[in-house]
Design brief:
Strand order of the largest sheet: 5-4-1-6-7
Order of helices and strands: EEHHHHEHEHEHHEHE
CATH superfamily of the largest domain: HAD superfamily/HAD-like
Number of domains: 2
Number of helices: 9
CATH class of the largest domain: Alpha Beta
CATH architecture of the largest domain: 3-Layer(aba) Sandwich
Helix content: 40-55%
Radius of gyration: 19 Å
């Protein structure tokens, strides 16, 4: 049966965010260090923040996985006021959106699926505002039909509702649904457990290579 619904992961599947996010995180933390007279220790602050993020990776609560939470936690650990927190977060987002790039073939694939009247859903651990900004920055937002965030599900990935919710929304069955993602544990494994057709993206992938499987 031909698919009616395509569910994509966002980060590092449709939009290459990992290198851009690293630059953004560093710029924000260096900004905080400079504002508090700690610029010589900026790299120590950055690596402390990375350790905090690593400790939070097992927590499924979406708000604890946001940069605002971990950066605030870093400030608290160093007994620094939150005076410049919002400025740092703004700098992070501005830097991120400046450096993100569309994954190879993403716009072509989404455009062809849109023209073929396939429903397209994007899932993400980001909040809705950040996700929309990312999609708009690479001109993909107008091509999708639904955005599902961690805050919609109430949990970070992996979670079956990232797939069950859009299938219910569009009233399609598992054998009419295709998942495209990059992360084995977060995207691929839970989709396979539901009996969905899955295609895994790698850094070498060109997303148009999946078109022949869709229609």
């Amino acid at each position: 049966m031909p698919p009616k619904l395509i569910i994509y992961d966002l980060d590092n599947t449709l939009v290459m965010t990992r290198p851009a996010a690293k630059i953004g995180y560093q710029q924000a933390i260096y900004f905080i260090a400079k504002k508090h007279g700690l610029y010589r220790d900026r790299n120590k602050l950055y690596h402390h923040w990375k350790r905090l993020v690593h400790s939070l990776k097992v927590d499924p609560k979406p708000y604890k996985r946001r940069f605002a939470f971990s950066l605030g936690l870093l400030l608290d650990k160093h007994q620094l006021p939150h005076t410049h927190l919002n400025q740092a977060l703004h700098l992070y987002e501005k830097t991120l959106l400046t450096h993100i790039r569309t994954a190879k073939g993403a716009k072509e694939l989404l455009s062809s699926c849109h023209d073929a009247s396939l429903k397209q859903v994007v899932t993400t651990g980001s909040d809705a505002v950040e996700a929309v900004h990312k999609l708009k920055a690479v001109s993909l937002y107008s091509l999708i039909d639904l955005l599902i965030t961690a805050f919609d599900i109430g949990s970070m990935k992996p979670h079956s509702d990232y797939y069950l919710k859009p299938m219910a929304h569009f009233k399609v069955s598992p054998n009419q649904t295709v998942v495209i993602g990059d992360h084995q544990a977060e995207d691929i494994a839970p989709a396979l457990k539901l009996g969905l057709t899955v295609y895994r993206v790698t850094p070498q992938s060109h997303l148009m290579e999946f078109q022949k499987h869709l229609f």
